[in-house]
Amino acid sequence: MRVVIAEDQALLRDGLGRLFTDRGHEVVASLADAVRLGITVATELPDLVVVDIRMPPTYTDEGARAAREIKATHPDVGVLVLSQHIETTHAVELVTLGGFGYLLKDRVLEVAEFLSAAQRVANGGSALDPQVVARLLSARAQDDPLDDLTPREHEVLELMAQGLTNVGIAKRLFLSERTVEAHVRHVLLKLGVPEGEEAHRRVLAVLAHVAARRA
């Protein structure tokens, strides 16, 4: 992968750079703020942009706004947003774009999983932090369709929201791919999700109902 990193904390920025280069990826730019991020992406056309959600000068949502702009102007570029805290509003809004990930910074310490998520996002997939998924799925409304899911289907749903494929879910839960396919089919049926593009609707199946529950 060709990677652009935008992170104001120097130690984390350098650490991220080493993680990618040590695995054979190329870091084409490393920035301390989001001011030049758009121009850099337009010039370098990387496979992946890793950006902190809170950056100078206001430390509010510079990263989120930059992510939206990148996806609007360069939809094929994967964007992985990092956050210090769980911010479900940004997570729900942005992950529906596809080729997008939202992870807590602590996830960087789990190197193999972090790099797997980064590669998935660069390939056009999605990655949503497990803690964000847990927070989103913890709030229940009356007559919530999620209540119809079995415990195993809930597990599958959480992993779907994180962006895992059927193969990835099967490995994580020690199930056969055929069993996972059946669980996914049941989840989508119970949630009333229409047929469509498989990879994208898996995440939308979760987020649409989460968003409805939070409204």
Question: Which properties best describe this structure?
Answer:
single chain; 215 residues; alpha/beta; 6-stranded parallel sheet; 52% helix; 14% strand; globular
In short:
This protein is α/β, with parallel strands linked by helices and 215 residues long. It has ten helices and six strands, in the order E-H-E-H-E-H-E-H-E-H-E-H-H-H-H-H. Strands 2-1-3-4-5-6 form a six-stranded parallel beta sheet, sandwiched between helices.
Largest sheet: 6 strands, parallel
Number of strands: 6
Oligomer: single chain
What's the tally of helices?
10
Rg: 17 Å
Helical residue percent?
Answer: 40-55%
Can you walk me through this structure?
The model has no long low-confidence stretch (mean pLDDT 85). The protein is built from 10 helices and 6 strands. With 215 residues, the protein is an alpha/beta fold. The chain has a 6-stranded parallel beta sheet with strand order 2-1-3-4-5-6, sandwiched between helices. It has helices at 10-22, 37-44, 62-73, 88-95, 111-122, 130-138, 151-161, 166-173, 177-190, 198-214, and strands spanning 2-6, 26-31, 48-52, 78-83, 100-104, 126-128. The chain is globular.
Task: Compile the SSE list and pairings.
Blueprint: E1 2-6, H1 10-22, E2 26-31, H2 37-44, E3 48-52, H3 62-73, E4 78-83, H4 88-95, E5 100-104, H5 111-122, E6 126-128, H6 130-138, H7 151-161, H8 166-173, H9 177-190, H10 198-214
Parallel strand pairs: 1-2, 1-3, 3-4, 4-5, 5-6
Helix pairs in contact: 7-9, 7-10, 8-9
